[in-house]
Amino acid sequence: MSENILKDRRVLLIIGGGIAAYKCLELIRRLKERGAAVRAIMTKASHEFVTPLSVSSLTGDKVYTDLFSLTDEAEMGHIELSRDADLLVVAPATADIMAKMANGLANDLASTALLATDKKVLIAPAMNVRMWTHRATQRNFETLLADGVDFIGPNEGDMACGEYGPGRMAEPAEILAAIEAHFSELAYPGGGPLKGKRILITSGPTHEPIDPVRYLANRSSGKQGYAIAQAVARLGAETVLVSGPTILPDPPGVTVTRVETAREMLAACEAALPADIAICAAAVADWRVASDAEQKLKKAPGEQAPALALVENPDILATLSQMKGKRPALVVGFAAETEKVIEHATAKRQRKGCDWIVANDVSPATGVMGGDLNTVHLITREGQEDWPLLPKQAVAERLARRIADHFVTSKAAE
Ligand SMILES: Cc1cc2nc3c(=O)[nH]c(=O)nc-3n(C[C@H](O)[C@H](O)[C@H](O)COP(=O)(O)O)c2cc1C
Prior knowledge:
By secondary structure, the protein is α/β, with parallel strands linked by helices. It has helices at about 25-35, 50-60, 70-75, 80-85, 95-105, 110-115, 130-135, 135-145, 170-185, 225-235, 260-270, 315-320, 340-350, 390-414, and strands at about 10-15, 35-40, 65, 85-95, 120-125, 150, 155-160, 165-170, 200-205, 210, 215, 240-245, 255-260, 275-280, 285-290, 310, 330-335, 355-360, 375, 375-380, 385, 390.
């Protein structure tokens, strides 16, 4: 099984004529990054919102629009176009496309391909809140659900038209996650290799208050931990993510508890036990301010800057690793180092008492903190594995597979 569930999957993206069409460019980019082959059909109306040139530059393929184009039919007929795909995704799905789909209309290439397909269809509706809540659209929504069409969104929020409510298209990352979930389900019909395992993951930074408006923090974005949560959930694990403050959306299928400080993070982890596996990817602050001020610290002319006295925070990785009774069977820590990465990470594994350490070089030149790529070394009792530079999602998938394999191997050894 490939580590990247999207590799070589063929996605037919149908782009409808709505403001959110610009977001499909980001979706195509992300799908391509993950190795998927993307072909696009654009409705005529969608050309008003995003250019076929932009779409074809990103898909690396021609864009299809016209049902009666002889060249299209010669190269790739409309039936073949939808049959050739592994999945059809409509984003944005306009009220108009939904109405056509619900009623079996086929009066342009997009609707004809949707009617001719024998593949799963995932749609991401996007429209004004009144269009979405209109009885006609809701009727079409119910019909499409009954027909087995999958939906992602719409989300609630501010709309381009200035109104607020449901109708915003799901973000590209959410659509991508839904596409990945679809292919995971195909790959593991009865549940993945981590089915039956409960996994606790920490992610993101912590914020340690100085006063009601200031805090000590670090540059962790949470991207790596969130990607791991998503990857293990896709392999069937019951996944609990304890997250410090991040701007990332909750990964689908994951129970998320959001916290601010290291002490809150520890309490949330303890409350989430028992777990079979703990993965501590959070960048927990080592220290907090000894006594945070109840009121905002004020600057007064002529006064010296206040000195911050720090005290040590609880060590979440060491606490979970050295726990009696409730210790997870596998505890994985992360080591963010800026020098002597392997040496420091190896020492950390022994000092904390965890089973594995994922070591990464977070010195500023690497761009790892907050970036999308990571080069990691997996340090176990048996030795060290050097993984190549990979997108954080690929690191997450590789780690998830590695954990699944570990449990298969340890079971076989029993
Ligand atoms: C500026 C503008 C924005 C629009 N945005 C949306 C939208 O977000 N969702 C929608 O369902 N229709 C929207 N429409 C209406 C569609 O473009 C229209 O229904 C069109 O016929 C849809 O064609 P298609 O479904 O073939 O893409 C918008 C129209 C205009 C002029």
